[in-house]
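PROTEIN DESIGN WORKSHEET
SECTION A - STRUCTURE
LENGTH: 205
TOKENS:
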């Protein structure tokens, strides 16, 4: 009986490795895709970590806001990646030159502490503050304070420089509790993607 191990051609090994890489890449791509949820003309993704988006629904109008149910997992900043679905279509005439959306967040605090406030920050480029003239804002043109509401925080303020920030204050959210926010975003920029950074505010130690 011949006990010698069969000879494997180098080309067969290369093909096997290539197939393995292809399968891994497909799995990673699928994992990211599964975290994208679409509502209205946008997709919302938790791919950057720190929070989990449970569901999204709605069209983005005042009567039918986009509702994002999420769980905040970290006391550090976490970022929602927002993409314009219709801007990826061949026929770019299907959408207006600008877009806007009313948002409602149903946010569960599953972090290690209670919150005394909460901050949202818009970024056109990840990690860089949104400047006044980039077209991305919490509606700096015709802002209506009635569009900015929370069921747990009484006060809010909007900052335009050095970045577009919306800060909710004068309230409290315990661990394992839920807080709701309503806000309005105006996007006049030509970018297909932008970011919404979320930062829980903690009591001073």
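SECTION B - SEQUENCE
RESIDUE ASSIGNMENT:
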């Amino acid at each position: 009986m011949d006990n010698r191990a069969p000879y494997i051609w180098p080309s067969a090994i290369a093909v096997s490795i290539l197939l393995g890489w292809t399968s891994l890449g497909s799995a990673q791509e699928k994992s990211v895709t599964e975290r994208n949820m679409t509502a209205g003309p946008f997709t919302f993704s938790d791919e950057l970590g720190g929070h989990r988006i449970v569901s999204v629904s709605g069209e983005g109008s005042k009567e039918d806001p986009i509702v994002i149910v999420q769980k905040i997992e970290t006391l550090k900043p976490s970022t929602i990646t927002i993409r314009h679905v219709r801007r990826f279509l061949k026929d770019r005439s299907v959408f207006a030159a600008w877009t806007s959306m009313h948002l409602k967040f149903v946010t569960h605090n599953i972090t290690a502490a209670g919150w005394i406030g909460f901050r949202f920050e818009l970024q056109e480029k990840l990690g860089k503050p949104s400047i006044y003239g980039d077209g991305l804002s919490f509606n700096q043109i015709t802002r209506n304070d009635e569009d900015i509401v929370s069921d747990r925080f009484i006060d809010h303020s909007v900052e335009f420089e050095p970045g577009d920030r919306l800060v909710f204050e004068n309230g409290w959210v315990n661990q394992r509790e839920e807080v709701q926010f309503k806000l309005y975003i105006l996007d006049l920029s030509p970018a297909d993607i932008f970011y919404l950074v979320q930062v829980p505010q903690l009591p001073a130690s």
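SECTION C - NOTES
The chain is about 10% helix and 40% strand.
Residues 37-201 form one domain.
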